[in-house]
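Annex B. Sample input.
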Amino acid sequence: MTSRPPCFRYVPGIICSLALATALPAATIVPLSDEALVDTAPVIFVGRVEGKLPPLSAALETEWLITVERVLKADRFVGGSLVLVTPGGVNAQGEQSKVFGAPAFRRGEQVLLFVRPRGDRFAVEMTWRNQYNDTSGTGIPTRLSNLTGAFSFTSRANLETLIKVLEFPDRFLVLYGALSNLEYTFQLRDTVTGHTETYHNPAGRYCGGLDNSAF
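Annex B, continued. Sample output.
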C-alpha cells in the first residue's frame, strides 16, 4: 500500500483488535509492513474517532468508540459504531500501563484502521431518543460477557439497556430489557450471513422483549 489519502491519518505497521458492538478483553500489537497489513488484516476501514471510553474494568487497555465511514476490506459485515481496543492505559482502579507503539487517537479525527475482530458472531447497535427533551444518539456499548452486552445513553457509567443472545441447536434466542422508559432500538446483525433483526421499544414503555427464534 504505497499511496495514502491525505484526508485521514494512517496507522502504520499495526494490527489492532476491535469488537463489533462490545469491547475486547485484550488486544495485540504486531509490527507488519504495509503489504503484509493489507494481506493479513481481515478488516480494513476508514473511521471517525468519537472519543475515548472511560475504563470500567481492571484491564490495562484503552477503548475507543469508532464510527465506520467506509469499509475497504471485510471478511464479515462491518458497520455502525465499533469499540477499538488498544493495549495500555488506565484501568478502573487507577492503575496505569504504557505500551510503546500502541496507537493513540484524537476525538474527531479520521483514521485508516487495519483490524482483527474477535470471534463473536453477532454485532449489536443501539440508538435512542429522549421523548422529554427530544435529544437522541447512539448507545455507548459495554461488553459484559460472551453472551451479554449493555448500552448507555450519554454516560458509560450509567447502563440503560441490556441484550443477550443464546444459541440453541436449532435457533438463536434474543432477550433484551431496560432500566429506562426512553425510546430505543436495537439492531442485531449476524456477521456471518449479514441478516439483521430490529427490536424497537416505544417511548414510555419500561419492559423489554424476547425473540424465541431470531436467526
